[in-house]
Write a structure and sequence with these properties.
The protein has helices at residues 3-23, 28-35, 39-47, 54-64, 69-72, 76-79, 86-91, 94-105, 109-129. With 131 residues, it is mostly helical. It folds into 2 domains: 1-92, lambda repressor-like DNA-binding domains (434 Repressor (Amino-terminal Domain), Orthogonal Bundle), CATH 1.10.260.40; 93-131, no CATH class. It is globular. The relative contact order is 0.12.
Length: 131
């Protein structure tokens, strides 16, 4: 497997880790405390910016009461070299995860559309500035 594919799988692993952590009702700080790591290290794992050791994966599975295979299974997409989706990329950043969580709490379809329009306008402005 090429380095780019490994990086994508690390990103997907981080996305699965974040999903399992939130499903278990744990904050990054609470998980960090249980693993005796920093909150920043947990964030790095979830963004795919840091590699997770086999021992840490085993500890995560025990803490989250999830089969270790939930974390280790290579996705079919990764095996076929398919790049991560926009959702994968969104969930891989702290800001993206916060945005997704806040977005899902909006009950009004009209307000959700405004959020999307605002994001699109910001992308356009950023493109114009060449940032």
């Amino acid at each position: 497997m090429e380095q780019q594919q490994l990086n994508m799988e690390r990103l997907r692993l981080g996305t699965r880790l974040r999903a399992c952590r939130t499903a278990a009702g744990l904050t990054r700080q609470a998980l960090a405390d249980r693993l005796q790591l920093s909150k920043r290290r947990i964030g790095a794992f979830e963004r795919g910016a840091a590699a997770i050791s086999a021992v840490q994966l085993l500890e995560l599975a025990v803490i989250m009461k999830a089969p270790i295979t939930d974390f280790l299974t290579l996705s079919r997409d990764a095996l076929q070299g398919v790049p991560p989706t926009a959702i994968d990329l969104l969930a891989a950043t702290d800001e993206g995860a916060d945005l997704a969580e806040a977005f899902t709490m909006l009950k009004s379809r009209r307000l959700r559309r405004h959020v999307v329009k605002l994001a699109q306008e910001l992308v356009h402005q950023e493109d114009q500035l060449g940032a």
